[in-house]
Write a structure and sequence with these properties.
Elements lengths: L2 E2 L5 H10 L5 H11 L13 H10 E2 L4 E7 L6 E6 L5 E9 L2 E5 L3 E3 L14 E4 L2 H15 L5 E4 L9 H12 L11 E5 L3 H10 L4 E5 L5 H7 L8 H15 L3 E7 L7 H11 L4 E7 L13 H13 L4 E3 L13 H12 L1
Parallel strand pairs: 1-2, 6-9, 9-10, 10-11, 11-12, 12-13, 13-14
Antiparallel strand pairs: 3-4, 4-5, 5-6, 7-8
The chain binds S-adenosyl-L-homocysteine.
Length: 346
């Protein structure tokens, strides 16, 4: 298959153009066209035909298409099932907040991290997404609503740091002034805890908001529900977070999914407090979304509120994640999963 031109960074595109004996400014022109949403070389009206033919031999500029779309009646959240060129499916979610639109994007087809509560990991990892497929999700959402996206969260299907190089390229192109021009301060990357990459991120993209899926405050429970913890313990993970904070001065977010009877009691809240005290951080509490295959259930409302109150009382800022798009199954991984099951039953 041809390489999508959006897989190249600005610098790489410049090198390519120069290697073809063309003037450097052509790279700027082409790069701008790419992120204005052209889906064919024909649409690049100020580029000579000879150059377009040359590029067409090895490169494509195709965009990913929305296969299915669900719009929430409750809060206008939009959930997309997207089809990739090779027939694989991914998901993204568009949420409307008072400050603008946020899109939640996927980073891999499937996931190999094996978290016990998560729908995305059930069939394992099929492959990494390319930079163009990651940015293509943002472009598809912008096209669908006809408005600019202001914020991006990488909390869809996949583990971004298990696809580190492509995610770094995506971050470069999405923030480039001739790209989508969305600054790193408006982007959150969420990881299940690949500590080495957290340290690397501190130098590669220090303006990003880092979000850590913690979900348990002791190693025994965390290793049970998140196998990655057997490689990077809570201590190793938090050391990397402290390193990130020291080097970037940025507040880290911790996601903590409350699962009934697993990690939702006051003893767990107290452990969490002990781990995080003194850190520049914020805790997001998420009542777990029931996924039929996992058997986990939501902690009850009073328990979630008590957990939050405990943290706040001890000086750790904590909020309960507002559920969005609850009428359209907006938790990531479930649409793709349903589609794969339907296809298998055919
Ligand atoms: N792999 C990355 C990003 C994708 S998951 C990560 O682990 O952070 C995005 C968030 O959704 C993570 O915090 C993940 O733990 C959480 N999540 C996954 N399944 C969930 C479920 N059933 N209910 C609530 N949150 C879930």
């Amino acid at each position: 298959m041809k390489t999508n031109l959006r897989d190249l960074t600005y610098g790489e595109l410049e090198e390519l153009i120069i290697s073809l004996g063309e003037p450097r400014f052509r790279a700027k022109q082409i790069f701008s066209w790419l992120y204005r949403g052209v889906a064919s070389f024909d649409e690049m009206t100020n580029i000579p035909k000879s150059l377009k033919c040359r590029l067409l031999e090895d490169y494509s500029v195709s965009l990913i298409t929305i296969e299915e779309k669900y719009v929430s009646r409750l809060d206008e959240t939009r959930k997309y099932l997207l089809k990739l060129d090779d027939g694989n499916y991914i998901e993204s979610v568009l949420m409307k907040y008072h400050h603008g639109y946020t899109v939640c994007v996927s980073s891999q087809v499937g996931c190999r991290m094996g978290c016990a509560f998560c729908a995305s990991t059930i069939g394992g990892r099929i492959r990494n997404l390319t930079p163009s497929e990651i940015i293509g999700q943002v472009m598809a959402a912008e096209k669908d609503i006809g408005e600019r996206i202001s914020n991006i969260v990488m909390m869809g299907i996949g583990e971004p740091f298990d696809n580190f190089d492509n995610v770094m390229k995506f971050l470069e192109n999405v923030s480039h002034p001739d790209g989508l021009n969305i600054g790193h301060r408006h982007i959150t990357v969420s990881t299940c805890g690949l500590a080495d990459k957290i340290r690397e991120l501190a130098h590669r993209a220090p303006q990003i908001t880092l979000s850590i899926s913690l979900h348990a405050a002791n190693n025994e429970t965390r290793s049970q529900i998140m196998p990655v913890n057997r490689k990077y313990s809570i201590e190793a993970l938090l050391d990397a977070c402290r390193y990130y904070i020291e080097n970037t001065n940025r507040r880290v977010s911790f996601e903590y999914t409350l699962i009934a009877g697993v990690n939702d009691n006051t003893a767990a809240a107290s452990k969490l407090y002990n781990l995080l005290k003194g850190m520049l951080c914020h805790v997001n509490l998420i009542p777990v979304n029931a996924v039929s295959e996992t058997g986990f259930e939501k902690a009850d409302k009073a328990q979630v509120e008590a957990f939050r109150a405990y943290l706040e009382k001890h000086g750790i800022s904590a909020t309960i994640r507002r559920e969005m798009g609850s009428d359209i199954n907006a938790a990531c991984g479930q649409l793709r999963r349903n589609r794969l099951q339907t296809n298998n039953n055919k």
